[in-house]
Design goal:
The protein has 190 residues and is an alpha/beta fold. The chain has a single domain, classed as Glutaredoxin, CATH 3.40.30. Helix content is 31%, strand content 21%. It has a 7-stranded mixed sheet. Helix 4 (112-126) links the parallel strand 4 and strand 5 (132-136).
Length: 190
């Protein structure tokens, strides 16, 4: 028992030092593996200029994407880790055109105007070409049917065939494990 305690303590310290999310930073948020992927409406703010959707158009991107593999990011932050994730997801979309991978980023916030401003800033910061940046109609905590945890800075849902294959969420955006999210893309590609 003592060895297990020492090992666990060492693991927590190593994770804290390495910048990896600790148990307190990882939260349950959004639909989980095996859950259906519900519809919800958003307003497009920026990005993905060639996806056939105009800026300020209100639509269901999840519906537009259909059963294609898709990564849905909900964020309250434009932290460097979030920008890194979005930039890498943009690259993944370009590299997986045959699988028709789709990504869209939902900016959440207490104020819709502020969320819109942050979405524009994140789009400019990442220079993503294939990722639309949106504000959900339910902008404070995302769509009710998704159960986004109000304590989660970032929630990432990976799905295909309208079912969730993987989910990641952290209370602090700077603790986001970008590589872990990217490795889960293989779970959703056809």
């Amino acid at each position: 028992m003592k060895n297990l305690f020492v090992f666990s303590l060492g693991l927590v310290v190593a994770m804290a030092v390495s910048g990896t999310a600790t148990a307190e930073d990882v939260v349950k948020s959004g639909p989980q593996q095996g859950d259906p992927l519900g519809a919800f409406y958003v307003t497009k703010i920026a990005g993905a200029e060639d996806d056939g959707v105009d800026v300020d158009q209100n639509l269901c991107y999840r519906c537009k994407n259909g059963s294609r593999p898709q990564v849905i990011v909900f964020t309250r932050s434009s932290d460097e880790k979030v920008a890194e994730l979005v930039a890498k997801l943009d690259k993944a979309v370009a590299e997986n055109t045959s699988s028709q991978l789709r990504v869209f980023v939902n900016m959440l916030g207490e104020d819709k105007e502020d969320a819109t401003k942050q979405a524009k800033q994140l789009a400019a910061k990442t220079k993503a070409k294939h990722v639309p940046f949106v504000v959900p109609n339910e902008f404070e905590n995302g769509p009710d049917n998704y159960g986004i945890n109000s304590k989660a800075d970032v929630t990432v849902t990976l799905a295909s065939d309208l079912g969730v294959k993987s989910s990641h969420a952290v209370t602090k955006a700077n603790q986001l494990d970008v590589d872990s999210v990217l490795s889960d893309i293989q779970k959703i590609l056809n």
